[in-house]
Specification:
269 residues; alpha+beta; three-stranded antiparallel β-sheet; globular
Length: 269
Amino acid sequence: MAMEETNGNSAAPADDRATIRTVRRALAVLRAFRSTDRELPLGEIASRARLDKGTTHRLLRTLIVERLVEQQEAGMTYSLGIGVLELAAGLTREGDLRQRAQPVLAGLAESTGTTAFLGIVHDGQALCIGRVDGGLAIQIRSWSIGGRLPLHGGAGPRVLMANMPAGDRERLLAGSLEALTSRTPTDPVALRDRLATIRERGWDIGVNEIIEGVSSVAVPVRGRDGAVIATISISGLTPHMMEEGRPRHLPELQARVRKLEAGLTGEAS
């Protein structure tokens, strides 16, 4: 049987190598989806995953069965499925975080007319694991469930970045800081100061940073040990979100998150 050396001293059979290759290819297909691309055609997925269309199509069919990918009604594009959310929910320190946060998101979306998000840090990015759209005619289409954003871009991701371990935060500041719009902060010195301000005041706001004309406000969610385990943010059209230079819905957002934290820590609400 053909063998392959791994980790210097161990070897893997050929059929194991094939399995590993398939898993890696499936992961490449999933990673083809980005925060700005909710739906992708087969050809674009194949190109990003560096696979031929036939292999990509077979992988997509399997991922659809596992609910990790959905095929849109017209059949021409694909998007991440609910199964990605189920996997992401297991990454949080609090196993029931998403379940407990869902009514908070729903309440915020209903009372403010905004889109509410729950995000965590995963693999050096901000991963959305919960989302509820408000009742306004115009809804925010960025950061879908399972979508990722850079940690320096937008209020929610930046709250997470501000509360990361200092070493992890400095590594991100030393790397490439992508500008999603002309308003996305990309200067590491100014961003470092801003992150310190976020930690001190306990919230952040982003204006026109991910989508022009859209603003967001975010606060951290703390677990039993007081460490930040997630962020809850709300987004909407800038005139709806801002009032005299301050975020209009910040007090309600803070109050609802405090109630969520009390439930997570077992305190009376």
